[in-house]
TrEMBL record:
It comes from Marinomonas primoryensis. GO terms for molecular function: hydrolase activity. The keyword Protein biosynthesis does not apply. Its EC number is 3.1.2.-. It holds the Pfam family 4HBT_2. The lineage of its organism: Bacteria, Pseudomonadati, Pseudomonadota, Gammaproteobacteria, Oceanospirillales. This is 4-hydroxybenzoyl-CoA thioesterase. It comes from the Bacteria. It is an enzyme of class 3 (hydrolase). Signal peptide: none annotated. InterPro entries: HotDog_dom_sf (IPR029069). SUPFAM superfamilies: Thioesterase/thiol ester dehydrase-isomerase. Keywords: Hydrolase.
Amino acid sequence: MFSNERHQKIEWGDCDPADIVFYPRYFAFFDASTGALFEAMGYSLKHIRDELGDVGWPMLNTGSTFFKPSKYGDNVIIKSEFTTVGRASFGIRHQLFNDGDLAVECLEKRVWACLNASGTLTSKVIPNEIRARMLSQD
């Protein structure tokens, strides 16, 4: 399955008074990593919206396991990969590494979405070209 890696510097605003990352910030990192995963495939959210007329990939379910704290000034690596690709939904695993150690793992389930004729958000079959790229080993 397709994967991507990105670097993230832990900023002061990411941390709580104990000087460790406040856990909701990890979800913001992982959401940005999902966007980066699609961009690495050649499909930015701008392309999805402007060229395909779809909304994007809203979250259905997410959960994380925390192994090691990260602190202000740490430079971490986030590895993201598709784990499953269904008809309209897909899974992603994000692994955040700090100093070579797995610090956080997050599993997401997302859905390909568009607006129907009445303007309501609804799922849509993932376009074949994008599905093929998700399943690729690049």
